[in-house]
Amino acid sequence: MRKRPGSRNGQALIMVTMALLAMSGLIGMVIDFGWSYYTRRASQAAADSAALAGARAAMDMILAQGVSALSCTGLSCGSETSCGNGLSGTWGTACQYAQQNGFSAGGDSGRQQVTVAAGVNSPAAAPPTAPNVYVRYWVTVRVSTTVPQLYSALLGNATATVAARATAAITDFLVNGSVIAMNREGDPAPTWQNSPGTNNPDVLLGTNALVWAPIDGGIVLASNDAGAGTNLGTLSPISPYTNTRGNVNGSWGTANVSTSAADSTQFVDPYRGMGQPPLPTSALHEYPVEGGNLAYASACASGTCPPGVYYATSGGVPTGGQLAVSSPLNFSNGGTTWGDYVFYGGLNITGSTVNFGPGRYVLAGVLNSATSALNIGGGAQIGTGTGADAGRLFIVTDPSYPGLSAIAPLPAPLQLTFGPTTIDAGSNGSVTLYGLNPASTLPSDQNSLGYTLSDFGPVTIWQDQRFSNITNPSNTTPQMVFGSTTVLDGIVYQPRGAWMQFKTSAKLFGVGGPTNVGGARLFAGALDVGASSTLQLCRSGCSQSAPLWNHTVALVE
Q1: What is the pLDDT of residues 356-369, one digit of tens each?
Q2: What is the distance between the alpha carbons of residues 309 and 254, in angstroms, rounded to a whole number?
Q3: Do the beta carbons of residue 428 and residue 379 sit within 8 Å?
Q4: Which residues share a beta bridge with 342?
Q5: Burial of 504 (0-12, 13-18, 19+ CB in 10 A)
Q6: Mean confidence (pLDDT) of the chain
Q7: Which helix (H) or strand (E) holds 45?
Q8: pLDDT at 117 over 60
Q9: How far is the C-alpha of 92 from the C-alpha of 433, rounded, in Å?
């Protein structure tokens, strides 16, 4: 018996109907998952930006107020709290950024929730959401939203919750680089003795000049100029890397050069936001020096000058002239005991043997800006121990350095200004400088931002941050000059816009202390390395640079 054709058509209709139902479900699932995925991405972006904004707001407070702000008194802290509760401070900033990215507490007709939590870790420790990451301050933002469903609704799930979480933190970062040149494109340029005439490089190497950085150091150039590093000779720097936002000219060992690098913390002042090295809080004894020669000062009659304030006088009246050293002399508080010294008018050492004991040495201004505040001239023999003591710090400034007037008032009627530094002992002299030793017990004095001397270790020479040709573009002479041979364990620091010059055939050798950690590091706006000069930043006894840390903001989860 033959079947009627209509029966087959009925079967096809059933099959098509079932297929359409399956396809509809599949389309519903695609829509559900696609919309949830999109919402998840948007939620994560909002959480990331909000957490970063909160942490950056905290960092801004620390930069303005110092480490004293790194506490729950100065910053928002607490367990998970809704952004709908009128939060302020760093929490309020985080909530504001979440809202700008489309998410707020109770938003989208009550479907959205945004919460924030934060805390301070002292010492650095892991936040609750990111184990094995050590941070100082953390902000965690959670974003969630209820998403309506299509296919899932047929199964009884009318809505789904999409959530995202992010944690940003203030964390410590290790400052790398043996040479860090901070000048940016467009910064007023110094008058270079070797200038090629067209570029304003961060580092300029003269003919046969050589920079030799240790294995864990390198050269960092903040400018994005095409000649941020310019070599007029044929000796390429010996360095594990050169990182620059711009490019280099001449022989530079291009295999180790990273050009056009993105701006980052490596290109900023390593001491950004830390203020300046603190001074003691107790007044220092004054020692007027009649005639200005310390060799004949009654306070130094034993051959040792005690801690105090020294300035030249004539007939008992302060002159502001340089203090001279013409015979062997020690600056010491006795053995390895710390001492604090202030010199008004500058210090001029030539042809003499001088030993600087552990302490702070403040060169607090000169009569004429062309006069060196610290001048170590021909034949000088300068010693500063072996690196096993607390070290020493030379601060080159003027009478208005923070905290100076309280401990060493400027003698009337003097009016002094900032002066440069010159270290050039000649072929018959020698200079050995050991900087602050943060591994030892240093004075606990704090600056207005809460930083102590230990935070500035291992600086040897510190130029006041207020003096650079960015703040004073008319200053067109190098503000720190090296000649002959200098042996250094520590950091020579100048702010962005200042620069140092190494004369023709100058030598700088880095050495390490007893722990084999140290060497020389140079932080400045720019460096002019004269012809046939050698900067061997880790010559002996320094298998690695002394670590230097600062703070940055990063997503940790």
Answers
A1: 999 999 999 999 99
A2: 51
A3: yes
A4: 309, 362
A5: middle
A6: 86
A7: helix 5-65
A8: yes
A9: 49
* Tokens encoding 54: 């909160």
pLDDT value for 213: 85
The three-class DSSP label of residue 340 is strand
Mean local confidence (pLDDT), 19-41: 62
**Encoded tokens for 81:** 């709290």
Q: Which residues contact 35 (CB under 8 A, 6 or more apart)?
A: 147
> What are the DSSP calls for 344-388, one per residue?
ES-EEE-SSEEEE-SEEEEE--BSSTTS-SEEE-TT-EEE---SS
Compute the distance between CA of residue 244 and CA of residue 259 in angstroms, rounded to an integer. Answer: 5
Contact 468, 476 (CB under 8 A): no
Whole-angstrom Cα distance, residue 127 to residue 77?
A: 12
Residue 148: C-alpha distances to residues 46, 154, 157 (Å): 20, 12, 9
Q: Specify which residues 172 forms β-bridges with.
A: 551
* 324 pLDDT higher than 50: yes
Give 498's contacts (C-beta < 8 A, 6+ positions apart). Answer: 463, 467, 468, 469, 479, 480, 524, 525
C-alpha distances in angstroms, 205 versus 210, 235, 251, 480, 501? 7, 9, 10, 16, 10
Q: 195: pLDDT confidence band, cut at 50, 70 and 90? A: very low
Among 143-152, 336-345, 479-488, 541-550, the range scoring the smallest mean pLDDT is 541-550
Overall average pLDDT of the 49-60 stretch: 90
Residue 347: name the closest of 314, 315, 320 by CA. Answer: 320
Percent of the chain predicted with pLDDT > 70: 86
Q: Please report the DSSP string for 292-324 in residue order.
A: TBGGG-GGGTTSEEPSEEEEEEETTEE--PPEE
CA 499, 504, 506 angle in degrees (round to 5)?
A: 75
Q: Rounded to 5 degrees, what are φ and ψ at 527?
A: -130, 135
Q: Which of 482, 459, 496, 462 is nearest to 535 (CA)?
A: 482
Question: Does residue 376 contact residue 343 with C-beta atoms inside 8 Å?
Answer: no
Q: Is the Cβ–Cβ distance between 387 and 433 less than 8 Å?
A: no
Q: Is 121 left (phi over 0), alpha (psi -120 to 50) or beta?
A: beta
Report in angstroms the alpha-carbon separations of 241 from 133, 212, 252: 27, 11, 10
List of residues 6+ apart from 115 with CB closer than 8 A: 80, 81, 82, 83, 105, 141, 142
Tokens of 252: 């530079």
- Using only C-alpha atoms, the chain has a radius of gyration, in whole angstroms, of 32
Sort strands 329-331 and 317-318 into parallel, antiparallel or unpaired. unpaired
The predicted model scores a pTM of 0.83
Please answer whether residues 445 and 402 qualify as being in contact, where contact means their C-beta atoms are separated by less than 8 angstroms: no
Say yes or no to pLDDT of 465 above 80. yes
Closest CA to 220 of 174, 258, 255: 258
Query: Would you state the structure tokens that stand for residue 452, as one six-digit string?
Result: 């102590």
**Residue 197, pLDDT score:** 40
Question: What digits encode the pLDDT tens for the residues 401-447?
Answer: 999 999 999 999 999 999 999 999 998 999 999 999 888 889 999 98
